[in-house]
Amino acid sequence: YENMEYVKGRHPDWEISLKICQAGALVEELRRGGVDLIFTVGEVLRDETDLKTRTLLELPQMILYSRLSPLAQKSNLTPGDFAGETFLFVPDAVLTTEMIHRQVKSMEKRYGFAMKTRLLTNTDELSLELELGQGVALMDYWSRYKNNSALRCLAIDLAIDVVLAWKKENANPALPRFAQDTADFFRRQVLD
Predict the structure, then answer these.
(1) Which residues 6+ apart lie within 8 Å of 143 measured at CB?
(2) What does pTM read for this prediction?
(3) CA atoms of 192 and 190, how far apart (whole Å)
(4) Is 168 helix (H, G, I), strand (E, B) or coil?
């Protein structure tokens, strides 16, 4: 949100509003013209040929788990401590099971254990399962779930891209300017 304030300060005549939803819903909203551009993470736009994208930064990922979990009592946790846990995912039209599979393989390669996974149908189910300790989740560091007091998080050494996208056919000159200002903002944040 700090980025929005930065861009508004540079372009006070621009109207900027935010909308938060699942990746699939965001892409559909963009295609429908309900929003002009979107931020998303990971490879969700990998095969989208009608969109112009710009990678802004790499964001650390984290493992979210219940404060009720026995792991919450352990000090000096490592990703390997989660080897016996079930990792929960919510696929949709954009975050496909194929993308989840690639993410799982990356995690397995990095940390040397085979992940048990379970696919859920929606984010409400994910929240409940996490809070009750019925599994853990791999999320980006900006996830709103990390602010849930019923959960704990462990930052891991595995990054995911933050991507800005808009429709290629949208010729509004403000969009590339917004992308550049946003990239500049994040570059400064990383350097500070």
Answers:
(1) 62, 64
(2) 0.73
(3) 6
(4) coil
